[in-house]
Specification:
Blueprint (H helix, E strand, L loop, with lengths): L2 E6 L6 H13 L2 E8 L9 H11 L6 E7 L2 H7 L4 E5 L3 H17 L4 E5 L10 H9 L10 H10 L3
Parallel strand pairs: 1-2, 1-4, 2-3, 4-5
Helix pairs in contact: 2-6
The chain binds adenosine-5'-diphosphate.
């Protein structure tokens, strides 16, 4: 059984993330999408809210589990019996950082392989930080995020 972890901040989850997850769920037996909790970085949404919104957004994906973790991704992967890490690539600008990360992970745990996936072109430019910026400036984010995220943000930030 090939278990893959899709780690990230998901602050919040976007349609770009979901597209990557869909593809991964077709390739691997089980995919665990895991929110990385960083006690030093507060983020936009609390981790438990991010997890809740992901759960609502992946309801239709049978082989996807939602979780969170703290510390090194490879330790979490080992704990969960996963040998694959999924990461997404948008532009060349992602490449250097992602390459470095995957090589560091590989040096620490050679049995854990990183697999890079891309999204459909229409989701390619979407990032959580762009979404935050559009939303905080009162723009319409409904095309870029799953409905539960849009609904949560609209309700939480009503003035
Ligand atoms: P992190 O803080 O770990 O980068 P993110 O939630 O920003 O967490 O992203 C998680 C992963 O998903 C990263 O590999 C990122 O490159 C990828 N990703 C995010 N948005 C997209 C997108 N629109 N297309 C392709 N990959 C994406």
């Amino acid at each position: 059984m090939k278990i893959a972890i899709y780690p990230g901040s998901f602050d919040p989850i976007t349609k770009g993330h979901l597209d990557i997850l869909h593809t991964a769920s077709e390739i691997f037996d089980k995919v665990i999408i895991a929110v990385a909790r960083n006690p030093e970085k507060q983020g936009f949404l609390p981790v438990d809210v991010r997890v809740k919104l992901i759960k609502k957004s992946v309801k239709d994906m049978q082989n996807v589990e939602v979780d969170f973790f703290e510390g090194l991704t490879i330790n979490y992967a080992r704990e969960r019996g996963a040998t694959i890490l999924i990461r997404g690539l948008r532009a060349v600008s992602d490449f250097e950082y992602e390459m470095q990360l995957s090589q560091a992970n590989s040096a620490l745990a050679s049995e854990v392989k990183t697999v890079f996936l891309t999204t459909k072109p229409k989701y390619n430019f979407i990032s959580s930080s762009t979404i935050k910026e559009i939303f905080l400036n009162k723009g319409d984010i409904s095309k870029f995020v799953p409905e539960p995220v849009n609904e949560y943000l609209q309700n939480s930030y009503k003035c």
